[in-house]
Amino acid sequence: MVKRYSLTGYEKNDDEDLWLWDDIPEKGFELGYKVEELMHYEKSKYQEISIAASTGFGKMLVLDGIPQYTTKDGFIYNEMLVHVPLTIHPNPRKVAIIGGGNCGAAREAIKYDSVEEVDTVEIDKRVVEVSNMWLSKSEIGKEDKRAKLIYQDGTEWIKEQKGAYDVLLLDRSDPYGPSIDLYKEIFYKNIYTGLKDDGLMVCQSGSPYFYLDILKNTVNLLRRIFPIVCVYLATIPSFPGGIWSFTLASKKWDPIVVDLSRLKCENTQYINRKIFISCFHLPNYLIRELDIE
Amino acid sequence: MVKRYSLTGYEKNDDEDLWLWDDIPEKGFELGYKVEELMHYEKSKYQEISIAASTGFGKMLVLDGIPQYTTKDGFIYNEMLVHVPLTIHPNPRKVAIIGGGNCGAAREAIKYDSVEEVDTVEIDKRVVEVSNMWLSKSEIGKEDKRAKLIYQDGTEWIKEQKGAYDVLLLDRSDPYGPSIDLYKEIFYKNIYTGLKDDGLMVCQSGSPYFYLDILKNTVNLLRRIFPIVCVYLATIPSFPGGIWSFTLASKKWDPIVVDLSRLKCENTQYINRKIFISCFHLPNYLIRELDIE
Fold it and tell me: Which of A23, B73, B216, B282 could form a disulfide linkage to A30, CB 3.0–4.6 angstroms apart?
């Protein structure tokens, strides 16, 4: 008999081993991560938050049963979300990250000397507190007076920003629960308004293999608003299918003409100058779907 | 109660749905593929061979419970195994594929006009016959008089080849069961001897995330034998972690100086000229592990 845990995503098998399951029901695909120890679990006002010590991926931050960050491969997501836009913008001073409560994205952003302020806008204070408690300092970034935390709903916060930011990053979870409004056209329009005249944004836009519709929708909505829209890719082994998309939308700066000496890749684990160039090179099956060139 | 199938890898869940499970026990990681219909199953002299109609990946060729090829994303593996070496070699005429019984690699190789002969050396005739029966003609390639099948153990066959081939491709399964000898130094030495003076080889070398030791071992053994050894990557969503490595070993031709107009990418689904360049760009975590540059 399979014993089911009451916690979303977790399940004990016949051998009493605890596993976390991430499934894509419409594709009949499931990923299982063996959990050595469930270090933390709580229901916050917004979602279930847990920290699991996994066998293969180190400590995992899990929201509503879905792994968001692992200590073994989470650097890939954070580096690709942050370094790409902060290299394309020639002088990023004011940066905000909407979502990103584990603070790994802010840690990457403060590597850029031009950056004067990094605001992390997180709806759920408990995500920040739980990450601070269980993930190591090196994972969430040292204290830096340029990094500020704002506990507010990103969709509300962005309405108050007018021409204020050089770079806005959407470190959003999948389009369910608290993140659903972060996928709507009105939100992207507010992002446009919140950016300076030469500002740019990047969002994670899901698996191009399993959720191509989400990626296409993101690209199509952003193309209506921004003159420059590009998709780039990274492979994150703990995510379903590995391949993951990010969408960049820019008012002025184009990734095609970039000074790569600005890329702060001395201490990165994933990105380097060649990866920066390569990540924009899409396979044919995606070029055709996204109507590129 | 979980009902277990007697077939390796397959299992029925509480709802009587059939799933195929691919697991990496030492990493506590499992992938589940929902199976709509088990179209074929047999035990050959060498291994269990099955064809499963999956929900998310189309028809799958499965050997000893491990998916080898899917009709939805198998093109990625075949294109990357074949087009990269056949573009680097300026005039590939005689090509052999060791393994590759689903014949998808041979299909890609015959796209190159210079190719006069493509020998597929497969130990298990039933893999070829089952693939022919269940996978569509467009998947396994039209009949072409240049494509020949040789039913022999690749480790024995290679001993008889002396300076005969321009390109040798190792379409091997993981280093267990019938493939284990395809990972040994003596086999790589025989590959070297089987190639012409300017010949080159490519092998799949596993997941660089889950099986870094296999990749490192492959690279180290080949570096002792060949003057030019390079690793390149592709992301294959149905494979664990997505990211997958190929290792190229060459006597003369170097991927750094290649005429990309030779790449036959008009009808490919994955590779194009930019992907060709990008696939050799490794993330920092791999560059450090592989001692590159």
Answer: A23
